[in-house]
Amino acid sequence: MTPKKIPSEIPAVDSKANSVLREIMSGDPVRIGLSILLGFFIGAVFMVVFNEDVVKSWSNFGADPSYALSTVWWTIQDGYGALFSGSVFNLGADNFIDGIRPLTETLRFAAPLIMAGLGVALTFRVGLFNIGATGQIMVGLAGATFVSTRLHMPAIIHMLVAVLAAVLCAMVWGIIVGILKARTGAHEVIVTIMMNYVATSLFTFFLRNPGMLLEASGGGTPKSDHPDGTAKLGALLGPDFNLHYGLILAVLAVFIYWWLMERSTFGYRFRMVGHNATAARAAGIKVENTFIWALAISAAFAGLAAANQGLSLDGGLTTSIEAGIGFDAITVALLGGSRAGGVVMAGLLFGAFKAGSSSMQFAGVSPEVLGVVKALIVLFIAAPPIIRALYRLPVPGPKIYEAAKKAKEAKVIK
Amino acid sequence: MSKIEVTPGMFSKVEAKPSFKTAITLLSSALVVFVFFGLLGKAGDVKFVWSDKRELIQLPQWVISSTTLCLTVGGLLLAIAAVSLWLAIREKKTPVWLVAVFGLLAMFALLGWLATGATQGVQMVFILSNTLVLAIPLILGGMAGIMSERVGVVNIAIEGQLLTGAFVSSVVGTMTGNLYLGLVSAMIASGLLSMALASLAIKYLVDQIIIGVLLNVLVIGVTNFLHSAWLDNDSAHLNFPGTFDKISIPFLSDIPVIGQVLFDNRITVYLMFIIVPVLWFVLFRTRLGLRARAVGEHPLAADTVGINVAMTRFWWVTIGGMIAGLGGAALTIGNVGSFGREMSGGQGFIALAVVILGRWQPIYVTLSALLFGFTIILRIWANQVSPGIPVDLITMVPYLVTLVAVAGFAGKVKAPAASGQPYIKG
After folding, report:
1. How far is it, in rounded angstroms, from Cα A52 to Cα B233?
2. Is the per-residue pLDDT at B54 higher than 70?
3. Which residues, other chains included, contact A293 with Cβ-Cβ below 8 Å and sequence gap of 6+?
4. DSSP secondary structure string for all residues of A177-217
5. Facing residues of B45 across strands?
6. Is residue B343 part of a domain?
7. Are B169 and B332 in contact (CB under 8 A)?
């Protein structure tokens, strides 16, 4: 099987990349499970090797081997135990509300990851590799912050207008990428990287400018006022929890994404272009316009994530509110196989990592280890050959696709 | 040696037509300088300081009225834009050196405009030498980008390669007390990372962009963890390598301005002076380079004439990664003196942009990297000489320039035709 080259009128869409994306998307649960397991295992190795107690106890292993082994066990238990109690249920809590709070924190952190992840996932399905969520979130934040701090409106309307502003601003950013891609053939990876930097500088510029977003008591630091109470995403479960209406936005986003991609003609066109742009063109689909639409809608999801970040804080905003969500969105989309359900699960997993990191810190285990775990899980999932080779699933080698095809044929015959 | 020229994109089907895009871009920038800096700019004198106080030969300072300077330079820029327009009408391309001259003149006007009325003036030596030092990681990262894209492998992992080099050089340099050992191990570590990229991309056909992004995420994750869980516990013995001593080249370093900027530097800078021309020579003047370019442009044709596509790709990506590792070392033991969390801060991604801006050609890539280095130092310096200037807008300029370049407004920019496409021997 040789990859068919698409004529260069449609630059940078080659069917090879798409078939890899398809393979990632095909999301065989066994492989995903093994990848997650292996990711956590290697993470544990990192925790143990760089733990001072363990190193000390192993330096006189001969004197007390059982102690040395137990320090290994305790380190892992401390680390992942703290992760569990910080992100799912705190077993040491006095009452149920305190016990369940970690879970609501996980949901709170997962919401923006899911929304931005859906945006990136959508472009994957169209065969585009869009890493511009960071920039779209920045621009969306600028829009949301302008509405929430500079305009004054009645309660719920203000919040809705602010969300809309975030979505529209982000969409503008996405459409620029789409137009550059469709009209000039510029590669979307480079364009989105550049647009991320431009957006970050632009947002900082707005935050520094007293006429635009700088706080009223403006000092030297680029920081906005806190959003009006009327524009804020209110608490969802009462004052005991930090969880806010951003979660509802995320649920809506998931539903919209699912309907758009799986049920609408629009999504059918997207998927068709993603599968084979040449065939789609032959079938009369305007591939260039599809790119622009895909990037615009993808940016809208990033805009929702921006609204979630910009309208949920009590204090003023700085650029740090973006919190790496735009970049994490790529890993979320990859791990989730670009499907609505998968993105939700991946977002929840990474949300749990974010929620649990403070309690890991508290337990004396560096939460940075989660960054390693996260990277490894997605690496194993995105690079099927690694996990196949490690678990000796089928034959690795350049003919892997033929092997997979043969296996499939054999199955059919059976 | 054969005379066949292999140029980027020679096998891609997009037609190259001379267009007015370059001329229009130049004309609009020239107008900005002439009208905005010149006619509407602040009136006042600007002082250009050419020599450090400790230099042997002192050049006189140069004081000029800001308006005169910006109008003169603006006029020259308009003239260059007119030449470019004339060439476009006659269906000829604007030569790259003319664009470079244009850029230098525009920078000069920008510096003058910013420093109008500032007491310390424009300290040319400070600005130029910092531009060079800050551009080193970008240049070396860019060379890594050229080496892998020229053979048809897209390298998004430059960021990870730089970060690996920075981390390893700092730790090994501190633990062994030998910075040269740190430099070598940085290259080896980064080379190993590139081997992972190369084998996954070439042998296992994993999507090159995805694997690049994920290797970046992995390196960021691992170095962040090691930084907080290991280095921070005992940074004096693990992360305190110091920097290379500056080496002054006798006689050459006494030349005014140029001597201080070019010939009074750390070894990382001198290595860059060697690597860039060598890579240019290998790529365009040797059989090895011709083969590499053939692999990147048309792997099937290269394979037909007996070139081992997979091995060529593997070794070029790996050696490129080693050079990027050197660039990472330039961040720590070549400049700052210790490893900081995520200290490459997106420079690997800028290196990607630099590769495109420099059209996959080592010399041009170096010049584009210097442009980015210049904006980094400009942001710091502009804040000192004229507070209140919108530095964020200046920061944006190189990214916008890159966008304009990728969108094809600055002449044709063509990637090697097979870049990003895996080759499966049939």
Report:
1. 9
2. no
3. A178, A266, A270
4. HHHIIIII---HHHHHHHHHHHHHHHHHHHHH-TTTTB-TT
5. B65
6. yes
7. yes
Give me the torsion for CA of B8, B14, B19, B25, rounded to 10°. Answer: -60
3-state secondary structure of B122: strand
Beta pairing, strands B247-248 & B264-265: antiparallel
Please name the residues between 393 and 412 in chain A that touch chain B, using a CB distance below 8 Å.
Answer: 396-398, 400-401
Structure tokens at A399: 């003919």
Asked if A185 and B352 come within 8 Å (Cβ–Cβ), the reply is: no
**Unique residue bearing structure tokens 């600028």:** A142
Q: Which residues contact A409 (CB under 8 A, 6 or more apart)?
A: none
- Tell me, rounded to whole angstroms, the distance of Cα A95 from its chain centroid: 33
**Residue B18 domain-assigned (yes or no):** no
Neighbouring residues of A263: CB distance < 8 A, sequence distance ≥ 6: none
Minimum-distance CB partner of B393 among A17, A50, A205: A205
Strand partners, B122: B48
Pairing mode of beta strands B45-49, B62-65: antiparallel
Query: Helices B267-285 and B362-385 sit at what angle, rounded to 10 degrees?
Result: 150
CA distance A332 to A327: 9
CB B137: neighbour CB atoms within 10 A? 33
**Could you tell me if A12 and B420 are in contact, meaning their C-beta atoms sit under 8 angstroms apart?**
yes
**Token pair listed for B401:** 């320039």
Collapsing DSSP to helix, strand or coil, B247 comes out as strand
Is the predicted pLDDT of residue B141 greater than 90, yes or no?
Answer: yes
CB contact A45 to B (< 8 Å):
no
pLDDT at A392: 63
Q: How many domains does chain B have?
A: 1
The answer to whether A16 contacts B396, with C-beta atoms less than 8 Å apart, is no
* ipTM, 2 dp: 0.84
Q: Is the CB of residue A236 less than 8 Å away from at least one CB of chain B?
A: no
* Shortest distance, CA A184 to any CA of chain B (angstroms): 6
Q: Which residue has the tokens 């960054």?
A: A371
Residue B345 has which token pair?
Answer: 């801060």
**Pairwise CB contact (< 8 Å): A331 & B218:** no
Say if A52 is an interface residue toward chain B (CB within 8 Å): yes
CATH number at residue B257: 1.10.3470
Q: Is B12 close to A8, i.e. CB distance below 8 A?
A: yes
Query: How confident is the model over B333-375, as pLDDT tens digits?
Result: 988 888 988 888 889 988 988 898 888 999 999 998 998 899 8
What gap in Å lies between CA B279 and CA B296, rounded to an integer? 16
Share of chain B above pLDDT 70, in %: 92
- B114-129 burial, b for 16+ CB within 10 Å, e for fewer? bbbebeebbbbbbbbb
Per-position DSSP letters for A141-188, written without gaps between them: HHHHHHHHHH----HHHHHHHHHHHHHHHHHHHHHHHHHIIIII---H
Q: Which residues of A touch B204 (CB under 8 A)?
A: 383, 385-386, 396, 398, 400
B73, part of any domain: no
B256 in a structural domain: yes
| Per-residue confidence band for A338, with pLDDT thresholds at 50, 70 and 90 | confident
Domain that includes residue B369, residue range: 128-376
Q: Which residue has the higher pLDDT, A159 or B383?
A: A159
> How many CA within 13 A on the CB side of residue B418?
25
Strands B45-49 and B122-123: parallel
- Residue A19, classified by CB atoms within 10 Å of its CB into exposed (0-12), middle (13-18) or buried (19+), is middle
Range of weakest confidence among A147-161, B155-169, B317-331, B384-398: B384-398
- CA distance, residue B120 to nearest chain A CA (Å): 23
pLDDT score at B146: 95
Up-side HSE of residue B363: CA atoms within 13 Å toward CB? 10
